Ribosyldihydronicotinamide dehydrogenase [quinone]
Amino acid sequence: MNCSAASDSQERSLKSFQEMAGRKVLIVYAHQEPKSFNGSLKRVAVEELSKQGCSVMVSDLYAMQFEPRATRNDIVGCLHNSEEFNYGMETLEAYKRGGLSSDLIEEQKKVQEADLMIFQFPLYWFSMPAIMKGWMDRVLVPGFAHEFPNCYDSGLLKNKLALFSFTTGGSEEMYAKGGINGDIRYLLWPMQHGIMHFCGVKVLAPHICFAPEYVSEEKRKEILIAWAQRLRTLWNEEPIICSPEWYFK
Ligand SMILES: Cc1cc2nc3c(=O)[nH]c(=O)nc-3n(C[C@H](O)[C@H](O)[C@H](O)COP(=O)(O)OP(=O)(O)OC[C@H]3O[C@@H](n4cnc5c(N)ncnc54)[C@H](O)[C@@H]3O)c2cc1C
């Protein structure tokens, strides 16, 4: 490389560092055990994104003992209709008057600040663990994340990005088209389209680590390195289309 090419490349990386620095990332993490593979994936993300100059917030749901149940306790003070409880209606009204419980207000503040949300979890029953589903149910309330007709491309959280990063018990082969578990892309529809896209969030391609329990130590290290590598160029990625035609064909 000649001097001018080297200085061009240094300039480009400085520019890209400056663009990434100051970005805010929220990692919503659901695993009970810090030494787990999910724990390692979360650590890699915190380290890599911090190195890029991003400011990283982590909601460690089990450590926080996050309440997954959507109940009357989420509303502080009087109910809008105390005769017949309706969670959606009550959270909308409570959100408008600043009457949601403090744990929800705290999480909503993090979402509001975040440019990118990474959801890190082990696959449970072809879905996310209940504690993370509870986060979706309770944090993404109407008025805050959506309010009809403000949904999908006009959802209230537009201009944010989300990425689902998860591990499986089953192998990639088991989750291939025609595999015993079926095409893993079908599992993504409720998370990516039904939740994130509904709230206006743009979705980056999922990051799936297949069967970390059943591969060698060496392979596990490679998977972690690949995650760090992806994170290095994440901000250059284009969002995916969450509702492609092939879903219902
Ligand atoms: C209720 C329930 C439902 C489930 N449903 C499904 C389902 O529908 N479909 C499916 O496919 N699976 C399912 N599973 C399996 C589950 O998805 C996997 O067990 C999980 O994804 C594995 O991830 P982990 O982080 O828990 O792995 P761990 O067991 O924590 O990690 C695997 C190995 O990696 C090691 N490790 C950790 N960090 C590092 C590091 N830095 N370097 C090297 N090695 C490291 C750990 O010590 C461990 O030996 C289910 C499990 C449960 C409990």
Q: What stands out?
A: The mean pLDDT is 94. Residues 219 and 238 are 28 Å apart (CA to CA).
